[in-house]
Amino acid sequence: MTERFAFNYRSGTSVLHELDVRFKLVFIVIISLASLKAGMPALAALTFVLVMLLIHAGPAVNSILKLLRYVSFFLVLIFIARALSTPGSPVLEYKTVSVTREGMYGGAVVCWRLAVVITIGLLLVSTTRPSEIKAAVEWFRPLFPFFPKKKVSIMMSLIIRFIPFIFDQAKETADAQRARGVEIRKNPVYRLRKLLIPLMRRIFARADKLADAMEARCYSENRTDPELKSRQADWVALGVVIASCFVMVAI
């Protein structure tokens, strides 16, 4: 269940808990953009800072690592695609297919950047209440006048609340399939089908129940959101993040 806790809000008094949620969203955008231009040394420094923040903010590092294993499949696919499609000095060759050194380096950097962005998102979710994220999305709404702000903010809030449930259901489904001996089958497609179909059915059933419950309680888009206030510490943090990102891109 540790994966679930990584996606839950954890109360605390860390620096990240005290920051304004609007600044946190800006930090995510700035750091994500900077990581696209960052090399290995900058990514290593950023990863070290993120690990320190994870330890300071509360979420256990082992829960983050267990969570990353779920996305490791996609990261491996991205790495293989980059290793096979990038021209350069061949490391392995088989007929017309070759794995290049430049491709392996590029794939590793891309996967590292994605892992960094996922970790930053986890830091936001674990240190910010969903209602505050919803209020911040509505606050940024003038920047995107063509989007329905209340619907988008409610959808984001529901997604954040639904992620722990998806992990719960995935674990229960995997345990049930393991008890039925599905893991004995060597066909990965068969095992994946036996996991995904019941999991998706459970998720959609729960979503229907949630929609019915919200409708029965006359849920409205017009909710009272928490008041957002910026402080001096938020502006100082913004300056530190911008300066750090410039350094990341420069080195």
TrEMBL record:
- The answer to whether UniProt assigns keyword Flavoprotein to this entry is no
Its placement in the membrane is given as: Multi-pass membrane protein
Is Repeat one of the keywords UniProt gives this record? no
Regions crossing the membrane:
25-55, 67-84, 104-125
Taxonomically, the superkingdom here is Bacteria
Quote the InterPro entries the UniProt record gives: ABC/ECF_trnsptr_transmembrane (IPR003339), ECF_transporter_component (IPR051611)
Concerning PANTHER family, the annotation shows:
SLL0384 PROTEIN (PTHR34857:SF2)
Q: What is this protein called?
A: Energy-coupling factor transporter transmembrane protein EcfT
